[in-house]
Write a structure and sequence with these properties.
The chain is α+β, with helices and mostly antiparallel strands. It is built from eight helices and seven strands; from the N terminus they run H-E-H-E-H-E-E-E-H-E-E-H-H-H-H.
Length: 195
């Protein structure tokens, strides 16, 4: 679902502050990660985000997220979707869709953005107001956009990441986990001046 309003980084931070205030004492940082384009926007990448996506470690965290946000419009109450592979909820906060979900797909990879151990191992903490938000590493985010073949997202992310400290090994393992062809992996690493 599209948000009723668009996000820029300032508005993203304001909405996150509202969410984090509601989650205070309900969820620990270890229960969730910020993922998707809003994660990229929060770390400073020049991407457009239409909503805010939280990955939750377990279904009970989605339920607690929903309880904490009960003062806001619930667009989709916590429920199984995608054939039972995702437990999902959506709320409207300050005109922005804020989603929380689990992704329940088994994988042996530790380098995927929303599956397996990747988001729980590879993340950074970004200050928002007086709190820190755990945000999935951009190497995992970039691999996701490459796998989805979305140049409107992966091209600006590559351009931005050229100026950042990028972990070439992590990115290559993430691209391999998605099954990207070796030639494409090498092109991306070369574009980032990592290979």
């Amino acid at each position: 679902m599209q948000s009723r309003s668009t996000l820029d980084r300032q508005r993203l931070c304001r909405v996150l502050e509202v969410v984090l205030d509601a989650l205070d004492g309900v969820l620990d940082e270890s229960d969730y990660r910020l993922v998707g384009t809003s994660a990229a926007m929060l770390v400073g990448a020049p991407l457009h985000a239409g909503d805010i996506d939280f990955l939750m470690r377990e279904r009970c965290a989605v339920d607690r997220f929903g309880s904490a946000l009960s003062a806001f419009v619930c667009e989709v109450p916590p429920q199984l979707i995608s054939g039972g592979m995702q437990y999902f909820a959506r709320y409207e906060i300050c005109g922005i869709s804020v989603e929380a979900s689990t992704i329940e797909v088994a994988t042996s990879s530790d380098c995927l953005e929303v599956s397996g151990t990747g988001p729980w191992v590879y993340f950074t903490r970004v200050p928002v107001g007086m709190r820190m938000v755990p945000v999935v590493r951009m190497e995992l985010r970039l691999a996701t956009e490459l796998a989805r073949d979305r140049p409107d997202r992966f091209e600006p992310l590559i351009a931005w990441m050229k100026e950042q400290a990028t972990d070439a090994d992590l990115l290559q393992r993430a691209m391999m986990a998605w099954g990207l062809p070796e030639e494409r992996q090498q092109c991306v690493l070369a574009a980032l001046q990592l290979g």
